[in-house]
Amino acid sequence: MFMGEYIHTIDGKGRLIIPVKFRDALGEQFIVTKGLDHCLFVYPITEWNILEQKLRALPFTQPDVRAFVRFFFSGATECELDKQGRILLPANLRDYAQLEKDLVLVGVSSRVEIWSQALWADYSRQAENAYASAAESLVQLGI
To answer: What is the pTM of this model?
Structure first.
């Protein structure tokens, strides 16, 4: 399980150090793709395979399903840790998530999210304001 929040930087070549606490669970190779809210989603291969099977089972005749699957898979790339524990993020993913220098890596149960520090700060402020009402909604779902 991934949890926690880590502040890192990305270098001029697009390399990012993955926190040690995330490396073991991610493995040597993992998938990075366009996430929601202009962040990147990072999945261990086993989680990616589960998600891929679920998305494959969706009815491709529905336009919203096709659009989501296209966007999600077109942004996906397999990353491999180098000897320093870094990955190279492709330019298209850096552009999508507005990653320039200061980043936040967030553990979200089965995945890691990579955020620009500015977008994460904005998102966190908004989410904090909605936290209580979201908790009430989760109670209605039996959580």
So the answer is: 0.92
Name the strand (E) or helix (H) holding 32: strand 29-34
- pLDDT tens per residue across span 102-139: 999 999 999 999 999 999 999 999 888 788 777 777 77
Tokens coding 60: 């491709």
CA dist., res. 93 & res. 89, Å (int)? 7
Q: Other C-beta atoms within 10 Å of 1: how many?
A: 7
Residue bearing tokens 């989680």: 47
Taking Cα atoms as reference points, which of 54, 12, 41, 39 lies closest to residue 119?
A: 39
**What is the Cα–Cα distance from 38 to 115, expressed in whole angstroms?**
8
